[in-house]
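Appendix B, example 12.
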Amino acid sequence: MNVSVLGAGNGGCAVAADWALAGHKVRLFDFEAFGDNIAAINRQKGLVCKGRVEGFARLDYAGHSMSEALRDAELVLLVGPAFSTRPLAEAMRPHVRGGQTIIACPGSCGGALEIRQRLRGLPDFDDLVIAETATLPYACRMDAPGKVRIYHKLTGGILLGTLPAASTRATLELFRQVYPGTTAAANIFQAMLQNANPVIHPAVTLLNAGLIERGCDFLFYEQGATPAAGNLIEALDRERIAIGRALGVEILPDPVIGVQQGYMQQANYQTGYSSAEGFRGIRAQSQLDHRYLNEDVGYGLVFMSRLGQLLDVPTPTMDAVITLASCIMGRDYRREAARTPEGLGLSGNSRETLLTAAV
């Protein structure tokens, strides 16, 4: 199959390597501003992959031309932080053709709807399938430009939400070629809300802010996810689950799905993260100005909090974390409104109207 991967960061390189090593023809794109991995891949004629997936992955293309990256693509995977989804979707718009399946992997709370907003109005729009996963299927980091290390590849617990829903079975068949542990979400909201990064990363980051600012080199989960951090994660998670319940979808507690995914061995908040085999060796970020706040608060928690408002679900812990993160970063994530239900084309303040807008 012809696969295009848009985004050449940690996740994008892991995705590109895995699909190529599985025998698919892979073309990789990123913007020129993020060219280190692209340059290294071209120098060494492929991607070095270590860890849970091993091998030297030869790609059909790695570069900065969107038209080349999308040439003959059957499956298009957008892999990057939430703030990359809109510019990637806008850049691909002139080159999209009917019959393609486009997946935000992960969707980071609404990536599929963001893509749909950017591509709406194209002549072939109704012939596109747009989907998102609740999570990236890996824990991974770049060892060096062109060299990706996969600490863990998910064994299950990967939810896929598809627009239109009628295309779910065909989309699953494509995606399961490399991720057999993927299951269909009940609807796009279940895939959006099962994303737990916004309840994990900001909690651990805020409670370790002093260590990060002092430049302490520590392990994010093993040393940073203390029982107190687990208590905060649990409070945030309860609100996320309540929002899902108001929409009529089951959102699994993160430690429960973490065990399904193979990350965690203990399905509890207080010790499950620090003891998780799938999180071993992942170092904390070197500064607070990082996606663990900018993405997971600015896009994830702000989106969930606003969705809670529309559904009359209280989110006091989410609101407190948004306020604290805004305070320490000297910006107002809530006012920036990087991703909101309204911005994704969702309107109304009832379960029925929101679900109707997301089909």
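The longest strand covers residues 138-144. The radius of gyration is 19 Å.
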